[in-house]
Design goal:
Layout: H1 22-40, H2 70-79, E1 95-98, E2 104-108, E3 119-135, E4 138-151, E5 158-169, E6 175-187, E7 193-205, E8 216-221
Parallel strand pairs: 1-8
Antiparallel strand pairs: 2-3, 3-4, 4-7, 5-6, 5-8
Length: about 230
């Protein structure tokens, strides 16, 4: 995925589950949250963070320098309903936001794309934050994002990895930079929801005639993983 333009497993049969088994709890949790969001076409207002972002090494600071950490992002993701609205905008710093079409990715069993009972797992990015450093026309954005991975009805416990891509866009929506990474979390039958967080940096040049505050940095899941739908 690249915003504005822009790892997955075989199937297996399962024995019937007892009414109150951990697996049944996991399926219910998934159905009450992730699948409901997927099938209803959830809006970004329910997923983006209200954390905002400061600046380090620049002017117009709105937060403490270097305050973005993986620990703070993870805590924010686990808060689960706290905050809301889009990420705040520090003066002169590029905007950082979750890509509208790629804030989540759902992985299905082969041949069952779109079938809610065929879901293996789902990833959701729910929180973002960023700081930036500006030297002339060179900008470095320190960005953090976090979210969760949910085990689906056909999923298997273990470590689940999902690819993520970051796209930097100028005022005309042309790509001027980017980054690629992956997130992972370990889910179990007893704990079918696990959380992830990352803090990274991306550096790029501001095009002539543009200002840093006019640049958008988007983060989202790649939608090309096997089984994604």
């Amino acid at each position: 995925m690249m915003a504005g333009g822009p790892a997955y497993m075989p199937s297996r049969d399962r024995a019937p589950l007892r009414r109150h088994s951990p697996r049944r709890v996991g399926i219910c949790l998934f159905g009450a949250s992730a699948l409901a969001l997927l099938l209803s076409g959830c809006g970004m207002s329910t997923l983006t963070s209200g954390m905002g972002g400061g600046m380090f090494g620049g002017t117009g600071s709105t937060g403490s320098p270097g305050r973005i950490t993986e620990e703070s992002m993870l805590s924010s993701a686990k808060a689960d309903g706290a905050g809301g609205g889009g990420a705040g905008v520090a003066h002169g710093c590029p905007r950082f936001q979750i890509a509208s079409r790629d804030h989540h990715v759902t992985i299905y069993e082969p041949g069952r794309a779109g079938d809610s009972l065929g879901v293996m797992h789902r990833g959701e990015i729910t929180r973002t934050a960023r700081e930036c450093s500006i030297e002339g026309t060179r900008v470095t954005v320190k960005y953090g994002f976090s979210g969760r991975i949910l085990l689906g009805p056909r999923g298997r416990p273990g470590v689940i990895a999902l690819p993520v891509q970051v796209s930097v866009r100028d005022p005309k929506r042309a790509a001027i930079g980017g980054d690629r990474t992956s997130v992972e979390a370990s889910v179990t039958l007893d704990n079918p929801i696990a959380y992830f967080s990352q803090v990274r940096t991306v550096t790029f040049d501001i095009p002539e005639g543009s200002r840093p505050g006019e640049i958008d940095v988007f983060v989202g899941f790649e939608q090309t993983a096997p089984g994604a739908g």
